[in-house]
Amino acid sequence: DTAVSQTPKYLVTQMGNDKSIKCEQNLGHDTMYWYKQDSKKFLKIMFSYNNKELIINETVPNRFSPKSPDKAHLNLHINSLELGDSAVYFCASSQGWGGMYNSPLHFGNGTRLTVT
Amino acid sequence: QKEVEQNSGPLSVPEGAIASLNCTYSDRGSQSFFWYRQYSGKSPELIMFIYSNGDKEDGRFTAQLNKASQYVSLLIRDSQPSDSATYLCAVKSGNTGKLIFGQGTTLQVKP
Predict the structure, then answer these.
(1) Apex A77 CA angle, A76 and A83, nearest 5
(2) How far is Cα A113 from Cα A96, in angstroms, rounded to an integer?
(3) Residue B71 pLDDT more than 60?
(4) A105 close to A3: Cβ distance less than 8 angstroms
(5) Considering CB atoms only, which of A43, A104, A109 is closest to B101?
(6) pLDDT digit string (tens) for B16-39?
(7) Mean pLDDT throughout A4-32?
(8) Phi, psi (deg, nearest 5) at residue B81
(9) Is the CB of A107 less than 8 angstroms away from the CB of B31?
(10) What is the pLDDT of chain A when averaged over all its residues?
(11) Does B43 contact A43 at a Cβ distance shorter than 8 Å?
């Protein structure tokens, strides 16, 4: 009965490779996010989709491309991986967007990406 | 100036004491404020949220918000070793709607 699940949990790959991380939520939420947490534990938003529409697209390299096939899924594809991409990537979901108050974020367990 | 600022710590308190975690934010239009707890190697989990000025209590936790001072805090009463974690303050930007996190404060509760 996992609410937000992402796969894989660990990803070790070499520079220059292309990899994908998948995320699914069964909470019925309409908004999903990708956050990156660096080695200093700083959580930074990367992308957000509301009802499959991209609503937040932070200043990240265009090697990162999100895709949301439906409201319950949000994937992240990364091309030409670099050493600096090593981090923990969290998927999250919430209900509602644009209002004064939002439901809190529910996070997945994270994907620890190590680029060697 | 960072959008959401927290002292990274570590903040060390003895078991049974009150732990006080603080957070300041720069966007005056912010309306929603959240506290998340993150254990090492785990994902952030919501502890509390607060929208209105004043205090909000939930068990051993009290969130305090002062919009005039752009300040939000989290008090943990009767701290337990199991409270040892990183506490993340998150603020929903009034301009962009984004949830912006602080860098987190590491709390250590010593038995």
Answers:
(1) 105
(2) 29
(3) yes
(4) no
(5) A43
(6) 999 999 999 998 888 889 999 999
(7) 96
(8) -55, -30
(9) no
(10) 91
(11) no
DSSP 8-state assignment for residue B103: -
Q: φ and ψ at B48, to 5 degrees?
A: -155, 160
Compute the distance between CA of residue A14 and CA of residue A85 in angstroms, rounded to an integer.
Answer: 11
Tens digit of pLDDT for each residue in B35-52? Answer: 999 999 999 999 999 988
For the record, the structure tokens of A41 come out as 């534990």
* Type of residue found at B88: L
- Tokens representing A50 are 């509301």
Asked if A33 and A107 count as a contact pair (C-beta separation under 8 A), the reply is: no
Q: Which of residues 2-41 of A touch B (CB under 8 A)?
A: 35, 40-41
CB atoms within 10 A of CB A64: 18
Neighboring chain A residues of B50 at a CB cutoff of 8 Å: none
Tokens matching residue B57: 């209590």
Q: Measure B14 CA to nearest chain A CA, in Å.
A: 24
Residues A65-109 have pLDDT tens digits of 999 999 999 999 999 999 999 999 999 998 876 655 667 889 999
Q: In this complex, do A100 and B49 lie within 8 Å of one another by their Cβ atoms?
A: no
Could you give the dihedral angle defined by the CA atoms of residues A67, A68, A73 and A74, in that order, rounded to the nearest 10 degrees? 40
The SS3 of residue B62 is strand
Could A43 and B49 be called an inter-chain contact, meaning their C-beta atoms sit closer than 8 Å?
Answer: no
